[in-house]
Design goal:
Elements: H1 3-33, E1 48-56, E2 62-63, E3 66-67, H2 74-79, E4 86-95, E5 149-151, E6 158-160, E7 175-177, H3 179-184, H4 188-193, E8 217-219, H5 231-239, H6 252-260, H7 265-274, H8 278-305, H9 311-330
Antiparallel strand pairs: 1-4, 2-3, 5-6, 7-8
Helix pairs in contact: 1-6, 1-7, 1-8
Length: 336
Amino acid sequence: MSADEAKNKKEEVTMVDVLQEEEELEQDANAVLGGSDDQHCTYSAGYVPRQALYLCTTCIITQGEEATSAGICLACSYKCHEGHDLVELYTKRNFRCDCGNSKFEQKCRLEPEKDKMNEKNGYNQNFKGVYCTCARPYPDPEDEVEDEMIQCIICEDWYHTRHLGDVEIPSEFAEMICGSCMGKTPFLSYYANNKTEVVEDCPLKSAEIPESKVETTFWSEDWRTRLCKCGDCKAKYLELNVEFLCNISDMVQEYEKQGLDQPTQYEQGLQALGNMDRTQQIEVLTEYSQMKDELKSYLAKFAEEKKVVTEEDIKEFFEGLKAKKRRRMEGPDLVF
């Protein structure tokens, strides 16, 4: 192998390594977004079974001292609220995008004509920017304790593990129901005490049904399949507004799979490289290496001067690269 071939081989590995480093972060983002459309507002789709939502604290209308509860979809967070202060709400069920309705001072750029209110939307305290029984923001600048947060599948609030009560958190579980929601759905205690048994008789008519547990419970991935589907139970689910528990596709894991099925930049990058001939591959890898070196040098200046790198700075850098490439492609101006 010649020196040039060895150099090109090293550059190729470097590019793949960088793409691999980004893939894990991108997969995490894809799971959260669940294949959400970043170009079109979800309003026309109605009350979407599950979607990623955001709270915009920049332009939400306040009534007195209290901010109005409202949620916006992914596309609106990009197209209508770019540069605003956004709070990620993760996912919520059966929600219709509020962007541009009466809760905002400006109309939605993607769907200007919307009803004044989405009457069927539900808003918990997360839409005020706080979480858990401690009603604190996340991340909390005043909280020095590192703690994981878990979402309750019924109220959809998020809880610090240390605020879930005196319960043992299993090493593996699929879903969690907080103590407050367990108290409001007493029939679930039957399933909590019979974690593997197939239900043959209606639990609501069973003499063995235990008293309601008001402690946090953790559930396996298949527990929803054991829920009784008789008429009495379905009526009770509807009465308590938990009929979604019978729907396997309501599970966050199912939602995340939609995002994980999306090709990552790593996969797209490898595919693009594979479709090029050897000469094109070397050109791309060489340009990538040069770009990486120039970017490192560019950012070093900000570090030396202790300046914050803004989005405009990065755009300026890449515009400069494009200008250099245009000049290189056009060739030097010749004077005769």
